[in-house]
Amino acid sequence: MLEALSGFVPPHPVHNTNLPAAWGVDDQWVQSLTGVITRYHAGPGQATSDLAFEAARRVLDASGGQAPNAVLLATSTPDRPCPATAPLLAARLGMVGVPAFDLAAVCTGFIYALAVGQGLITAGTASRVLVVAADIWSTLVHPDDRSAGVVLGDGAGAVLLRAGQKNEPGALLGFDLGSDGTGEDLITIRGAGARERAMAAPLSERERYFTMAGFRVFQRAVTAMTQSTKRTLTRADWLPDQLNHLVPHQANSRILAAVAERLGIPTQRVITTLARTGNTGVASIPLALADAAADNRLSPGERVVLTAFGGGLTWGSAALYWPNLPATASPYPAQPLKPTRP
């Protein structure tokens, strides 16, 4: 069950008015197309493990309880291709010796990691599991790619899971997970992997950066998240109108609106931080939860469903009754944002 929660974005906000002039976009255009106003970028020298560490430190401080005995890091932007980043994260947290590993399912990774964490607890392998989700996308967007650059941001979130009873608030009531590898090229970074090293001719420089087939992804994302949410509602024995909050992966505003419409869920029940953080990949759901918890928009006992779609292709959903958590700090920097065009 969920015991504590945190979120973190690096202290480098990029407002729509600060986007590169060469992209030829303005604030109104970006908002109407994506719903994003601000995104945060990691600073010079910052890696995924640095963002993950800050989110993890915050959730451990909030819990004030027994230390976790397993660490899962959901990420598609690890510090290195080898080794995994989770052991380094665990060591920085003073948890040398505990099992620690990365999990890569792109934007669905947080939900996958929740399911794996619950499995470790159910199997008796761990009594408390630290689940961290962190991505740094800003360094993987090509400088000329405005379509990805306007929406993608960096961030991290973390939760602490512990053993509990199924009827307790915070218990994970059910999951729906799926994948379709025939769509691997719809959301991808083609370079820097074993496939490229096995090719006779090198890939172009552009193929070493993030690419996404926008319209096809939109269609697949809306369908997958809608169907996955419906299956999860069925497993939890809930009706859509009984759902207090839907917390989707913060892809873009049009996807979120289409999913809510197909489910018949009023938009005011959809928790979103898209305007403030952009699409932070795997971190978007825990960041949205941390934002809502810090603002007291989640109440104990409320029905909550998380849902996501990402590269792979992957998708997943999870249901829970919201628990009575320790106070959750805001994931945002204390300094106010002052948007100006440089």
Task: Give the helices and strands, then pairings.
Elements: E1 2-8, E2 13-15, H1 27-34, E3 38-40, H2 48-63, E4 71-74, H3 86-92, E5 100-103, H4 109-122, E6 128-135, H5 146-149, E7 155-162, E8 172-179, E9 187-188, H6 194-197, E10 211-212, H7 214-236, E11 245-248, H8 253-263, H9 274-277, H10 284-294, E12 303-310, E13 314-321
Helix pairs in contact: 2-3, 7-8
Domain Beta-ketoacyl-[acyl-carrier-protein] synthase III C-terminal: 233-322
Domain Beta-ketoacyl-[acyl-carrier-protein] synthase III N-terminal: 101-181
InterPro entries: ACP_syn_III_C (IPR013747), ACP_syn_III_N (IPR013751), Thiolase-like (IPR016039)
Summary, kept brief:
The chain has 342 residues and is an alpha/beta fold. It contains ten helices and 13 strands.
CATH topology grouping of the largest domain: Peroxisomal Thiolase, Chain A, domain 1
> Mean pLDDT score, rounded?
94
Radius of gyration: 19 Å
CATH architecture of the largest domain: 3-Layer(aba) Sandwich
Order of helix and strand elements from N to C terminus: EEHEHEHEHEHEEEHEHEHHHEE
Largest sheet: 5 strands, mixed
Name the beta content range. 15-25%
CATH class of the largest domain: Alpha Beta
Order of strands in the sheet with most strands: 1-7-6-4-5
Number of domains: 2
